[in-house]
Amino acid sequence: MTQAVIIDSGGANLASLQFxxxxxxxxxxxTSDPRAIAAAPRVVLPGVGSAADAMQRLRHSGVAELLxxxxxxxxxxxLGMQLLFExxxxxxxxxxxxxxxxxxxxxxxxxxxxxxxxxxQLLPTRADPLLEGIAPGEYFYFVHSYAAPVSQxxxxxxxxGQSLSAVVRRGNFCGTQFHPERSAxxxxxxxxxxxxxx
Length: 198
Hints:
CATH topology: Rossmann fold
Strand content: 25-35%
CATH superfamily: Class I glutamine amidotransferase (GATase) domain
Largest sheet: 8 strands, mixed
Strand order of the largest sheet: 2-1-3-4-14-13-12-9
Radius of gyration: 15 Å
Order of helices and strands: EHEHEHHEHEEEEEEEEEEH
Number of strands: 14
CATH class: Alpha Beta
Number of domains: 1
CATH architecture: 3-Layer(aba) Sandwich
Distance between the termini: 15 Å
């Protein structure tokens, strides 16, 4: 049975993410204990709320210091993906610095309110095992007000008046701006792909 640790980042989506992983046959536990996180074969960093609050919790628990040392697959989800970058424009928060760049606030426009909330199509940028079996244009569920620009780390993007990173990867660190645990069969497929990464 695949094991995964979900970092307890204080978000309300922890239980649904844990259940989604368990449905895929993984033994998923929620913890903020750095020793348990370091020993886990897979690590998931979820997040909701503000970047500053999330980083404060990660620093207080010692997890912020630990994360850059991890060599196993790590998946950041929503705010968790944004925290992988150097900084967030939300309060100009210094983040984990595992990916280069700054996460910026979305620009509202007619027909494109902020937050970007709802289903949107994933557009692959390059091949990656995370997207195995996921067709171009597949729908995923988004809820966010900040986003990372498209860069060399972008595996797939989404169009919301501008191209935004929807899936990123650099080495063992991956991220999804959408919520795979709320994205039906396509989301389950992506989580399953993550659980199979080596």
